[in-house]
Amino acid sequence: MLAPSSLIQDIARQIRAHLRSLIAFHLFFTLLASAVWVPLSANTLAGLLHRIGRPVLSNGQILDVAFSLWGLLWLLVAIGLSFLVIFLQQAGMMLVVSSQAGNRYRVAMGSLWHVLRRLPALMTLTLLQVGSHLLLAAPFAIGLAHLYDAMLGDIEPYILIHLKPPPLWEFLAVATPIALVLVLLSAALYFRWFLALPAMMLDGLEPVAALRRSRELTQGRRLRMALAVVGMALLVAAIPVVFTLTFNTLGGTLLGYLPERNSVLIPAMLAYLALYIVTTIALTFLGIAANSLLVITLYHRAIGRAPVFRPSATPQRSGIIAWGAEILLLVFALGQAGWILHGFEINDHVAITAHRGSSLVAPENTMASMNQAIADGADYLELDVRLSGDGQVVVSHDNNLSRLTGVDRNISDMTLNEIEQVDVGSYFGDAFVGERIPTFQQILDNARDRIGLYVELKPAPGTAEELAQKVIAQLKASQMTDHAVIASLSPDVIEVVKRLDEDLRTTLFLQFVLPGALNTTDADIIGLRHTQATPSLLRTIHDTGRGVAVWTVNGVGDMSRYLDMGVDNIITDRPDALAEILQERRAMSDGELLLVKLRNWLRS
C-alpha cells in the first residue's frame, strides 16, 4: 500500500492528468494570497506588535516578549496564519485532482471557490491542529528555558559558541533527550491527524469529525506514513539544490562566452534571470503539488476509494482570468529580473572593519591586532570597552579573564594596575608573549589619523551611563568623535549615548527584527549577524535612512555576497581578505563584475 515506487507513480500520474488545472489553481491562489492574504497577515502581526508596545531587537528583548501574554498571542497568530495558508493551498490542490475531467480553468476556479466557502472550517481545523502542537510544546519549551538559565545563564553566549565549555556539553546531554521526546510526541500527533484535511474537504466532515476520522484511518499505519512523507520531503528538497547548482554552473559558463558589451550582456542576463525565476516558481509549485498529492493518495488508499469532487457554478470567463494570471506571472518574472539587474551596482562601496583587530593573526583587542588591522587596510577597528574596578576604561570583550588567560578573575573587580599585569598574548603564540590589555586612551592615541574606531560598550549592570560618559569624554578630548561609531547590543545603551551626545554615530547590533521595531531605536546603523542579512531586510533598513553593518564575516564567498547585497560595512576577522577582494573588483571590467554579481546572487 505504501511502497515508495507505487506512491511516486500515482503522484506522477495525477500530476500529468491535472497539470494545467493544478498550475491554474496555483496561480489563482498565489495572486489571491498576494493581493489579500499577505497584507492582511502583515497588518495583523504589526497590530499585535504595536499592542505589545516594545521593540523586538535584541536577544534579551525577544525572550521577554516571547514569554509575555501578547508575545505568546503574536506567536500563535503568526504560526496559525502560516499554516492556514498551507492548508488552503493543499485543500485546493486536493479538490483539483479529485475533480472530473473538464475545462481546466473552470476546475481550478471551482476548487478555489469551494476552499473559500469552507474557510471557517479550515480556520477551525488549523486552530485545533496548531494549537494542540503548541500546547504540547509549551511545557517542554519552558522546561528547557529554565534548564538553560540554571546551567548556562551566567556564561556569556560568545564563550558558549567559541569555547564550548563543559557546562555546555552537560546542558546538551540533559536537553537533547528532552528535545527528542518532544519531536517524537509532535510527530505522533501530526501523523495521527495527517488525513484530517482530505477527510474534511472530500467527505464533507466537520473539523472535529475529520480529526477523529484521521485517527481511525492512520491507526497502525503511522510509521509507514511517516517514512513515506520524510522520503518525499527529502526528494523535493533535493531538486531545487540540484537545479540551482546546475543553473549556476552552466548558465554562468555560457554567459561568460558572451561579448562584454552591455547591449548584449544585459539583455542576455535579463532573459537568464527571468528563466531562473520562472523555473524556481515551477519547482516551488511541483514541491507543493507533490506534497498535496501524497496526502490525497494516502487518503485514497486508506479509505479504499477515490472520492469525486463536483465543483459548483464558477465564473463563465475562467479561461480569461487564468490567461491573465499566466501573463502576470511572466511580467512578474521579467520585472523581478530587471529589478535584480538594476540593483547590481558596478562600483562597490563598503567600509572594512577589523573585528577586535586582525584577530586571526594577532591576539584580539590588543595593540598588536590593532596595528595589524591598520597594515591590512581596515577602515575601522572594532573593539570592546568596559570599566575596571577602579573606574578606568579598558579594552576587553570578556569580563572574566579565563578564556584568554586561564585566570578566573573579573575585570570589573580588578584595578587598572592589576589589569596591566595580565598577559593576554601568550595564549596566541610565543610572538605575542607579554601583550597587555590596553586602555581605551592608548587605543585612541594609536588610532588618531590612522584608523576609525567602532567602539562597542560592554557595561556591567548599572554602569551604562558612567561607561558612556567616560568613552564620549575621551573621544572628544582626542578629537576622534568624527572618526568613531559607538555600538551596543542593547537599545537602552544606545539611548543613553544619544542622550549624552545626539551627534555621535551609533550602531545597534541585533539578530532579529519584527515589522515596525526599527521605529523604536535612534541608532544610525543597524548591525546584523551576517547569517540574518537578506536583500529584503537590507532594503527595509536602508529605507529608514540607516546604514547596515554585518558581522562577523570571514568567508571570502560570504564577503562577496554581502558586497553585492549592498551592505555599508563588513566586520571581519580578516580585513586583509576583504581588502584584496575590493582590489580585485576594481581591476575587473564591467562585464566580469556583472557575472560575479550574478553568481553571488544565485548563491544567495
UniProtKB/TrEMBL annotation:
Transmembrane intervals: 21-40, 72-98, 119-148, 168-191, 225-250, 270-299, 320-341
Domain GP-PDE: 350-582
GO BP terms: lipid metabolic process
Keyword Membrane recorded: yes
GO molecular function, one term: phosphoric diester hydrolase activity
Domain of life from the UniProt record: Bacteria
Keywords of the record: Membrane, Transmembrane, Transmembrane helix
PROSITE patterns, per database record: GP_PDE (PS51704)
Family matches, as Pfam families: GDPD (PF03009), GPDPase_memb (PF10110)
Protein name in the entry: Glycerophosphodiester phosphodiesterase
Originating organism: Salinicola corii
